[in-house]
Specification:
CATH class of the largest domain in chain B: Mainly Alpha
Number of domains of chain A: 3
CATH topology of the largest domain in chain A: Rossmann fold
Shape of chain B: rod-shaped
Order of helices and strands of chain B: HHHHHHHH
Structural class of chain A: alpha/beta
Distance between the termini of chain B: 23 Å
Number of helices of chain A: 21
Structural class of chain B: mainly alpha
CATH superfamily of the largest domain in chain A: P-loop containing nucleotide triphosphate hydrolases
Largest sheet of chain B: none
Shape of chain A: elongated
Number of domains of chain B: 2
Distance between the termini of chain A: 148 Å
Strand order of the largest sheet of chain A: 2-1-13-12-9-3-8-7-4-6-5
Helix content of chain A: 40-55%
Helix content of chain B: 55-70%
Oligomer: heterodimer
Strand content of chain A: 5-15%
Number of strands of chain A: 13
CATH architecture of the largest domain in chain A: 3-Layer(aba) Sandwich
Number of strands of chain B: 0
CATH class of the largest domain in chain A: Alpha Beta
Radius of gyration of chain A: 36 Å
């Protein structure tokens, strides 16, 4: 074959290929013009999806939603007019064909309106398909004019999705505290990967009642998210209680950083919970107290022992003595102490000897004698500790007295005190969850910035404790490192968060993002001819993050990524606000606990006869 | 019968009063009724107001007193902002509605529906009434256009039904959320 012949063949083949392509486009254009009402709706839908960052499912659902109120009514009206089904089916074709005879604006509008009941769902359905194809083509790299098209497309769509989600979040009725089906709305959905897309992202209250982790740096909007979840859970649990489907809710919040911000947050939370139907919201230690001494004697002895730093090595010897003394003091026959002063009174040899010296407890009396010389030291240590803890744990009051408790622990200013308080409060919460005498309550224990007080009780302990007691635990930290002491503990906490993980703007989201897993994607490599793409290329399968760490790192204030069951959803969190029409709660009979006073230890027994003291015929009473 | 401390200070019975509002109410009554005033003041009223102030001076105290209230109070007026207080400028929290008489809650659906309809004007007022109006106007105008351009055609009722459905579905987001049912 000559060069000329080869050249001719090549050009002919190229022309043939191009002609087939052009013919295809021309046929498509002709069909689009012919079915212009459908094209018009399709183009409008496609443009709306592109401009607002909707997923194709949004258009598909809109098409389906049109079928019932528009198409069904139209079919019914047509059926009333033409009883024969062929006539009904051909009605839009007839109207469309008639429209070509009146090519004016009014005529075209009339034609469009006549065929709209069929054209709108069809157009929206086609737009959904076209938009899905466009996304597929760009994300796999087979579409777009330039090599950077997938990147610019993604960035642009993200911005539009955020704008749309913000708009939805700003609407007053879009994100209430509780949505239909008693689900908790969180905010406008920005993007979903693996989860089903809904305009407003909601989670089930059951997720809150399990274990949830929230990680976000200061100023990332973590407080708003947590408050929304608290209020949503409370509203849902209260609604369930009203319907007789569960116990009344009890929300326990540990704000472990303290300071002025904590007071502001507490006040906001209180207002929000009032709007959600709460009757009493207690803020500890500023306005309410709890009685540590309500704990069972055994638990009380262990807790008091744990609240004091006991050391190791030689100090362990004294720790054992201290534990024995605490057991003797709290389990004395007269019952446990009722307040701190009574407890300190018991750390005295004479008191303990009197209490245990009834002749029935010789072993205990022996222990009292053995520990006698250490008792002043132990008393001093506990006097110091209880003095630092202040009166807020000295009662009166129980967790059952309020619908929600907001505990402010000064974890930044006084870490050791806050740690001891955290231990006591979690113990009281555990007691409230398991106590058989009190009314059972559905409980959510939320610990905000728990890392500030987690030195003595690791977060994993709190977590596992909550799991064993059947209460929901929600923990927040500013960073991945704040979740635990080592990687093992952090993974244990994050991987067992069956209620989901919320990641907000944080500098190191990789370990959390990894828990969302990866998905299979297609990547296309193109051959470059000069500065433009050639006709040849290859596509191969690759894996991509479900929750892209770079995207998480760039999240703006108020944006969060919810990771659950190997999928991720990006959400624009709505600022929680109580319904402005909230009804005030009705009254309930209240029995305020009276301050308790412990009976003085039994005094020295009076002599039976005053003559024994004063001698025969001694002084007489006046 | 126990005295309502909110009444004693002339305040609406609401748990979301601020410290400044309570203090201002007490100071006003104390200044007018103090026993040192010429004429001896009004000792009984002064004593009642002081006791009420002691009960309501903290948010927890207000919460307690509020929960102890025996009767519903039909005061839904916005709270008066105390000049110079923290609430001044930020404005009071949205007004809350009066409670209903105490009673056992029953999940009666028709009653909820009636309550929801009853709340509609307030929901519109507290929501985005202007946007709602624009939506309503758009739906009405398009419906009129449909009736004008294709009168008597089967597509007309279908399109009007579609427009009404669109208005109902999208207009919900412009309404304030429903209040939770009373406890």
């Amino acid at each position: 074959m000559s060069v000329w012949a080869w050249l001719k063949l090549t050009v002919c083949l190229w022309l043939l290929r191009k002609m087939v392509k052009v013919m295809g486009w021309l046929l498509l254009a002709a069909a689009a013009v012919a079915a212009w009402p459908v094209t018009l709706v399709g183009l409008t839908g496609y443009a709306a999806a592109w401009l607002r960052g909707w997923p194709p499912a949004r258009l598909g659902r809109a098409a389906a939603a049109c079928l019932l109120p528009v198409t069904a009514v139209w079919l019914a009206a047509e059926a009333a007019r033409h009883p024969a089904w062929p006539a009904i089916a051909l009605a839009p074709v007839r109207d469309w064909a008639r429209g070509w005879h009146h090519l004016t604006v009014i005529g075209a509008t009339r034609t469009f309106l006549l065929v709209a009941p069929a054209a709108i769902p069809a157009g929206l359905g086609l737009a959904a398909l076209a938009w899905a194809w466009r996304i597929y083509a760009l994300t796999t790299g087979i579409g777009g004019w330039t090599a950077s098209a997938p990147i610019t497309f993604d960035v642009r769509q993200w911005k539009r999705q955020v704008r749309t989600a913000k708009g939805r979040t700003a609407a007053p009725g879009s994100v209430p505290l509780l949505a239909r089906g008693e689900r908790i709305p969180v905010g406008g959905t920005i993007r979903t990967i693996g989860h089903r897309w809904h305009p407003v992202f909601t989670i089930s209250p059951a997720a809150c009642a399990r274990h949830m982790v929230i990680v976000g740096a200061t100023g990332s909007g973590k407080t708003n998210l947590m408050m929304r979840l608290w209020a949503g859970w409370f509203t849902a649990a209260l609604a369930a209680a009203r319907a007789g489907r569960g116990p009344r809710p009890l929300l326990v919040v540990l704000d472990c950083k303290g300071g002025r911000d904590a007071r502001t947050k507490a006040d906001r939370t209180r207002r929000l919970l009032y709007g959600a139907g709460a009757r009493r919201v207690a803020i500890w230690p500023d306005e309410a107290r709890l009685a540590l001494w309500d704990l069972p004697p055994n638990d009380l002895a262990i807790l008091l022992y744990q609240m004091i730093d006991s050391g190791t090595g030689a100090a362990a010897y004294y720790a054992d003595i201290m534990q024995a003394v605490l057991t003797l003091a709290t389990m004395a026959p007269g019952g446990p102490p009722l307040n701190a002063a009574a407890f300190l009174d018991r750390l005295d040899v004479r008191w303990l000897q009197r209490a245990w010296g009834d002749g029935l407890h010789p072993k205990e009396l022996e222990r009292v004698r053995g520990a006698a010389r250490h008792l002043p030291d132990i008393q001093l240590r506990f006097a110091t500790l209880l003095g630092r803890l202040g009166p807020a744990l000295d009662g009166p009051g129980t967790l059952a007295d309020a619908d929600a408790w907001y505990f402010i622990l000064e974890g930044t200013r006084e870490p050791s005190v806050a740690e001891a308080q955290a231990m006591a409060l979690t113990e009281l919460a555990a007691r409230a969850a398991t106590g058989t005498a009190a009314e059972p309550r559905a409980m959510l224990l939320a610990a905000d910035d728990y890392s500030a007080v987690s030195r003595r009780v690791p977060l994993s302990n709190l977590y596992e404790r909550g799991r064993s007691l059947g209460i929901g635990v929600q923990v927040s930290a500013q960073t991945w490192q704040g979740l635990g002491r080592d990687e093992d503990e952090r993974y244990r906490i994050a991987a067992t968060a069956d209620g989901g993980i919320w990641v907000m703007g944080t500098p190191h989201p990789e370990p959390l993002a990894a828990l969302a897993g990866q998905r299979r994607v297609l990547q296309t490599a193109h051959e470059f001819v000069g500065a433009t793409w050639g006709d040849r290329g290859t596509t191969h399968q690759a894996r991509a993050w479900n929750a892209d760490p770079d995207l998480i790192r760039r999240l703006a204030v108020g944006q969060a990524c919810y990771i659950h069951r190997g999928a991720a959803t990006f959400v624009q969190v709505a600022r929680p606000q109580p319904a402005p029409l909230s009804l005030l709660p009705a009254r309930a009979p209240v029995d305020l606990p009276a301050p308790r006073r412990e009976a003085a230890p039994a005094a020295e027994p009076l002599p039976a006869n005053l003559d024994d003291v004063l001698g025969p015929g001694g002084a007489r009473w006046p | 019968m126990a005295v309502n401390p909110f009444d004693a200070l002339g305040l609406p019975a609401r748990p979301d009063l601020t410290d400044e509002q309570v203090r201002a109410a007490w100071r006003a009554i104390a200044a007018a009724t103090h026993p040192d005033r010429p004429g001896g003041g009004d000792v009984a009223r002064y004593t009642a107001a002081t006791a009420a102030y002691a009960a309501l001076r903290t948010p927890w105290g207000r919460s307690e007193a509020f929960a102890d209230l025996g009767m519903a109070v039909d005061d839904t007026s916005p709270l008066e902002v105390v000049p110079g207080s923290a609430a001044d400028g930020a404005g009071p929290e949205p007004a809350v509605r009066p409670s209903r008489p105490a009673g056992r809650f029953r999940s009666a659906r028709p009653r909820d529906l009636i309550a929801a309809v009853g709340q509609l004007p307030a929901r519109i007022r507290h929501g985005r009434p202007r946007r709602l109006l624009i939506r309503a106007a758009a739906a009405s105008l398009l419906s009129l256009a449909v009736l004008h351009l294709i009168p008597g055609q089967p597509a007309a009722p279908a399109l009007i039904t579609g427009l009404v459905t669109w208005f109902l579905l999208t207009g919900r987001s412009d309404l304030a959320p429903l209040a939770p049912p009373p406890r």
